[in-house]
Each structure stands twice: as structure tokens, then as C-alpha cells.
Design a protein that fits this description.
Elements (H helix, E strand, L loop, with lengths): L7 E5 L11 H9 L2 E4 L2 H11 L5 E3 L5 H13 L4 E4 L12 H9 L3 E5 L4 H7 L8 E6 L4 H10 L6 E6 L4 H12 L4 E5 L7 E5 L1 H10 L8 E5 L7 H18 L4 H12 L3 H14 L1
Parallel strand pairs: 1-4, 1-5, 2-3, 2-4, 6-7
Antiparallel strand pairs: 7-10, 8-9, 8-10
Helix pairs in contact: 3-4, 6-7, 7-8, 9-10, 9-11, 10-11
Bound molecules: S-adenosylmethionine (SAM).
């Protein structure tokens, strides 16, 4: 009996719009594997036909992924190579595949990435916002309260913030960005690599106005990028430390007057200013 070598899972990025963005290596892999696991087999069938490829496909989406893992592991164990693709871009990035890749890695299977487009990297590369540090957050919560809560939690992050968004929620999201993050610079990358690719630049409120003037600007797929918070100055840091000292003193039952006196001794400044700050903190509770 011959024992076939264990197969490889190829995680293959596909185009996010322009089909010419598929790499020759991706095409070769897709043509060579025994089976292609695709998020939506009908959608990916069109891509394969465009490439002139005819390979067996298997659906792998968020509702059946856990069940598919054992099945695909059996195929790999039998020596079959498998490709994983999603509807667009890089699998696992806001797309299915994490359970499969985690399990295969944990069990020592070979998992090989075949790189290509990923919408947020494509958007960031042409946005003109700082790229040295960024925070990709995927989709914001669908409900307004959850969305505002997430944005508020990000308020002090200094990295460029990046979100995915659909046309159904783009206006609500811009409104919430205006409310929670103010007038920072926002770059909206729409329909990347497609005919109506557009980059809009401005604060969230001005982008909303642009969408009201031209409703086409609210159509299609979006990557929303927001400038990070301005770095805190030494003065800001000192104020934050002083306020936490005052809060700690007040919560220990130290009176406003005495807290102000301690602040003057430790931090300098005038008793009058510290007294006013301590009184305000006490009133805020
Ligand atoms: N795996 C994909 C990737 O690598 O970017 C992302 C999949 S996620 C389900 C789909 C979201 O990605 C869209 O709602 C949109 O926010 C973003 N996206 C995908 N293609 C895009 C495009 N051509 N232009 C702008 N955003 C796009």
C-alpha cells in the first residue's frame, strides 16, 4: 500500500474588483489543487470560469465552517491539496477560514499563503494617512450604541484607525465618527480597483455633506480611515497624573482644601487653581 504525502492548504487571495489583480501564482495554485473551498461557490465559480479553470468546489462559510474542518482535514490527510478562497480579497480578513487554519496549524499541517489584494491595505497605501502604525478594526458594530461605544473606546488611540463599511451603514457610521471623534481627517476609499474607485477626504461631517450632494458617493464598498488622536503633550500627561492624584485623595476622604494643599506641595502651582480643580472633581463625583 502506498501512503500519499499529506496535502497542503493554500490560502489564496483573490481580486477585490479588478480581475487582473489575481497573481499568476494564485492562478497556478487554483488550477492545480484537488478542491477549492470557497465562501460562495456560485460567486467564485464566475472567477474560475473567467480564469478558464474547472476545479471541484466546496462551500466554506461562517455557518458550516466548523463542520467542514474535519472534512478538509481528511482530504489533506489523503494527500489532496486544497485551496481556500473568499468572495474577495484575502481569506480570514473579515472572512471565513480562521477555524480551519487554526486547527490545521495546531496539528502540523502545511498552510501556505498566496498573497494578493486586501482592501484595507490597498486603501491605506493610497490614502495619505500615516501608515507606520495603524489599527484595523474590521466592521464596527451594526447597532448605533455599540458603534459609538467602540468609537469612544478608540478616541485616544494615536494610530490611523481603519474600518470596513457597507453602503447601508456608511452614513450612520460617518455621523457617529463626527460625534465621537470630532473633526479629524477621514479618508473614504470606495469601490477600490473598480470603475468608480473614489477617495474622499475631509472631516466626517463634510463627507456626509458630499454624500447628500451626490448620492452615488454612498454606493458600493468602503474602507473608512480616520486619523489617529494627536499625541499627548507632556503638559497633558502631567494634568492627567495630577487629576488622578486629586481623585485618589478625595476618594480617601481627604477634604478639597487639604487635597489642594497636597497637590501644591507635590506638583507646584497655586492653591487657588488646585482648589478649583479638586472642587470640580468632587462635584463630578
Ligand atoms: N477579505 C476581504 C479583504 O481582504 O479585504 C474583506 C472582506 S469583507 C467581508 C468585505 C468588506 O471589505 C467590504 O464591506 C468593504 O468594507 C471592504 N472591501 C472589499 N472590497 C472592497 C473594494 N473594492 N473597495 C472598498 N472596500 C472594499
Amino acid at each position: 500500500m502506498t501512503v500519499s504525502a499529506i496535502g497542503t492548504l493554500y490560502v489564496v487571495a483573490t481580486p477585490i474588483g479588478n480581475l487582473d489583480d489575481l497573481s499568476p501564482r494564485a492562478r497556478e495554485v487554483l488550477g492545480d489543487v484537488s478542491v477549492i473551498a470557497a465562501e460562495d461557490t456560485r460567486h467564485s465559480g464566475r472567477l474560475l470560469r473567467h480564469l478558464g479553470l474547472d476545479r471541484p468546489m466546496l462551500s466554506l462559510h461562517e455557518h458550516n465552517e466548523s463542520g467542514r474542518v474535519a472534512q478538509l482535514k481528511a482530504r489533506l490527510a489523503a494527500g489532496d491539496d486544497v485551496a481556500l478562497i473568499s468572495d474577495a480579497g484575502t481569506p480570514l480578513i473579515c472572512d471565513p477560514g480562521f477555524l480551519l487554519v487554526r486547527e490545521l496549524r495546531a496539528e502540523g499541517y502545511r498552510v501556505v499563503p498566496i498573497p494578493g489584494a486586501c482592501a484595507f491595505v490597498v486603501a491605506l497605501s493610497a490614502a495619505g494617512l500615516p501608515t507606520d502604525r495603524f489599527l484595523f478594526q474590521g466592521f464596527l458594530p451594526a447597532k448605533g450604541s455599540g458603534r459609538r461605544g467602540r468609537l469612544a473606546a478608540l478616541e485616544e488611540r494615536e494610530e490611523t484607525l481603519i474600518f470596513y463599511e457597507s453602503p447601508h451603514r456608511i452614513r450612520d457610521t460617518l455621523e457617529d465618527i463626527a460625534q465621537c471623534l470630532g473633526t479629524r481627517r477621514v479618508v473614504l476609499a470606495r469601490e477600490l480597483t473598480k470603475t468608480f474607485e473614489t477617495f474622499l477626504d475631509g472631516d466626517a461631517a463634510s463627507l456626509l455633506t458630499r454624500m447628500e450632494e451626490d448620492t452615488d458617493q454612498a454606493r458600493g464598498e468602503f474602507v473608512v480611515m480616520v486619523a489617529g488622536a494627536s499625541p499627548r503633550t507632556d503638559d497633558d500627561e502631567a494634568l492627567v497624573e495630577a487629576e488622578s492624584l486629586l481623585k485618589a485623595l478625595l476618594s480617601e476622604g481627604v477634604g478639597v482644601k487639604q487635597a489642594a494643599a497636597i497637590a501644591v506641595r507635590l506638583l507646584g502651582g497655586t492653591k487657588k487653581v488646585w482648589y478649583a480643580r479638586a472642587q470640580a472633581l468632587k462635584d463630578e463625583g
